[in-house]
């Protein structure tokens, strides 16, 4: 088992990465403050992993309840969040309760947000079960839900007590979901870790084949990169925004297509190609580097273009509600060279139009 730390002073926490960790009650018990535990999961993950987690916690005599949410990005909203509050209140759980998120990013974002809100804040632990949630969403404390008018528009920064990533859980993950996770893995290579980008170019076939060593390495290296960025800028006042590469385009795609039709990672795949295309048009990266990144994203079986049914004006409208917008001005993550991203509001609108029209 490997342990990394997200260094945030008194809110610091460990990320454990290893195999067969879901039922390690000894490990989990260290981060459960009181007797009460509420596991939040969904109806797909519950069938596979809930019994083992319940059994493990039961053996330690915790008072365990679970809430099983409907599965899907379309349920990442305030109505579903209420199901978590219903369970916590019905169980008469108090401020000593620890919420455990068992699932992918949707479960993690909602369980985290519910933890931030319930009785003004209770402890929570992330047990991510998708690649995407192991490499990205379980780390860093962004929690929240979607609104019909925009992704993740209602939420809070709220850090977990610990992240427990069980790489063995990826054996049951569908191939399409594995690809979606690889999008965020590639993101780290492009924004801040050129050596990792080169490693991915050489090893992407092993990753896509589900090679356990290659996946573990991706999780460790991604979490290490994310933890370093978050430690510098917990609440996205500056540098943290680079973790949003491709997301202004990607969130517009997810919202326009209806939540769940394009997976988050798929939209980020196409969104990163659009951000790189714009970077190239603006004279920042060369055509060869745009081609290298596009090819890597394609080899991960991800889309490299936006859906044809989106108009330029729809893109611009949806992009203008992005959380990075300041004083009415769009801010985008662009790439200077592979491994070096930055945030800018200095965007040539004609070139942005060209990108939107070329990348469909
Ligand atoms: N908070 C953050 O920093 C952050 C970062 C990136 C993404 N996100 C959010 O995360 C969400 C996407 O997360 P995701 O890609 O994990 O999607 P997801 O949570 O919808 O999970 C994907 C699918 O895999 C299933 N699943 C989960 N674990 C499984 C397993 N081990 N075996 C079989 N099936 C399994 C789920 O039930 C679901 O059907 C989006 O809402 C996105 O906005 C948040
Ligand atoms: O942790 C971050 O910071 C990120 O931006 C990670 C992203 O991969 C993730 O999708 C995040 O939820 C996007 O945040 P948002 O603030 O743009 O909604
Ligand atoms: Zn993301």
UniProtKB/TrEMBL annotation:
<comment type="function">
    <text>Catalyzes the conversion of 3-deoxy-D-arabino-heptulosonate 7-phosphate (DAHP) to dehydroquinate (DHQ).</text>
</comment>
<feature type="domain" description="3-dehydroquinate synthase N-terminal">
    <location>
        <begin position="67"/>
        <end position="179"/>
    </location>
</feature>
<dbReference type="InterPro" id="IPR016037">
    <property type="entry name" value="DHQ_synth_AroB"/>
</dbReference>
<dbReference type="InterPro" id="IPR050071">
    <property type="entry name" value="Dehydroquinate_synthase"/>
</dbReference>
<protein>
    <recommendedName>
        <fullName>3-dehydroquinate synthase</fullName>
        <ecNumber>4.2.3.4</ecNumber>
    </recommendedName>
</protein>
<feature type="domain" description="3-dehydroquinate synthase C-terminal">
    <location>
        <begin position="181"/>
        <end position="325"/>
    </location>
</feature>
<feature type="binding site">
    <location>
        <position position="184"/>
    </location>
    <ligand>
        <name>Zn(2+)</name>
    </ligand>
</feature>
<keyword id="KW-0963">Cytoplasm</keyword>
<dbReference type="InterPro" id="IPR030960">
    <property type="entry name" value="DHQS/DOIS_N"/>
</dbReference>
<keyword id="KW-0456">Lyase</keyword>
<dbReference type="InterPro" id="IPR056179">
    <property type="entry name" value="DHQS_C"/>
</dbReference>
<keyword id="KW-0862">Zinc</keyword>
<feature type="binding site">
    <location>
        <position position="142"/>
    </location>
    <ligand>
        <name>NAD(+)</name>
    </ligand>
</feature>
<feature type="binding site">
    <location>
        <begin position="71"/>
        <end position="76"/>
    </location>
    <ligand>
        <name>NAD(+)</name>
    </ligand>
</feature>
<feature type="binding site">
    <location>
        <begin position="105"/>
        <end position="109"/>
    </location>
    <ligand>
        <name>NAD(+)</name>
    </ligand>
</feature>
<comment type="similarity">
    <text>Belongs to the sugar phosphate cyclases superfamily. Dehydroquinate synthase family.</text>
</comment>
<keyword id="KW-0547">Nucleotide-binding</keyword>
<feature type="binding site">
    <location>
        <begin position="129"/>
        <end position="130"/>
    </location>
    <ligand>
        <name>NAD(+)</name>
    </ligand>
</feature>
<keyword id="KW-0170">Cobalt</keyword>
<dbReference type="Pfam" id="PF24621">
    <property type="entry name" value="DHQS_C"/>
</dbReference>
<keyword id="KW-0479">Metal-binding</keyword>
<feature type="binding site">
    <location>
        <position position="247"/>
    </location>
    <ligand>
        <name>Zn(2+)</name>
    </ligand>
</feature>
<comment type="pathway">
    <text>Metabolic intermediate biosynthesis; chorismate biosynthesis; chorismate from D-erythrose 4-phosphate and phosphoenolpyruvate: step 2/7.</text>
</comment>
<keyword id="KW-0520">NAD</keyword>
<keyword id="KW-0057">Aromatic amino acid biosynthesis</keyword>
<feature type="binding site">
    <location>
        <position position="151"/>
    </location>
    <ligand>
        <name>NAD(+)</name>
    </ligand>
</feature>
<feature type="binding site">
    <location>
        <position position="264"/>
    </location>
    <ligand>
        <name>Zn(2+)</name>
    </ligand>
</feature>
<keyword id="KW-0028">Amino-acid biosynthesis</keyword>
<dbReference type="Pfam" id="PF01761">
    <property type="entry name" value="DHQ_synthase"/>
</dbReference>
<dbReference type="GO" id="GO:0003856">
    <property type="term" value="F:3-dehydroquinate synthase activity"/>
</dbReference>
<dbReference type="InterPro" id="IPR030963">
    <property type="entry name" value="DHQ_synth_fam"/>
</dbReference>
